[in-house]
Please model this.
Amino acid sequence: MKKILVVTFLGLVCCSVFGEVVTATGTVTLGEVAKTSIISELLRYIPEAIALAFTVLTGFFFKWLKTKAADDQAKSDAIDSIKVGVDHAWNELGSGLKDALQKAKAAGGDGKLTAEQKIQLRNLAIAKAKEVATGDGAKVLEKWGFDVIVAKIKEVIDNRKAKSAMGK
Model:
């Protein structure tokens, strides 16, 4: 090991004095020695660069995860507001509609809500959902707009119908 270091040292001294060194594999110039030392210096920083990149990427991941969780919570709050709106609409108008539907069914009708009754219930549910929604849930309802809210109301009603059908 000492012989290699001495030979390397002598080679560098010769290279710096004469501008080149003749080796067994050929002639090495001062520029090639400089390139080699720059590369070896850069290689020392690779683990630190990898650690820095990992730290930055981990930070971005956790920020994204936190933002996603907040978005999911806001959507959940909006859905909860829609459920409250549907419950309120059905409780407020439902008893009268239930009686009307039962009378219609007894008279040979299909016992289903008319389009006008559905619109009345839907509008009341939307108004109540917007009334009880707070914070980010209210912002989500505003962002969704009428068509998406109507679709979410339909989902809530369909889920309740499916649960009640399973309970029968």
Observations:
- Residues 68-167 form one domain.
- The chain is about 85% helix and 5% strand.
- Residues 74 and 136 are 5 Å apart (CA to CA).
- The beta strands are 20-23, 26-29.
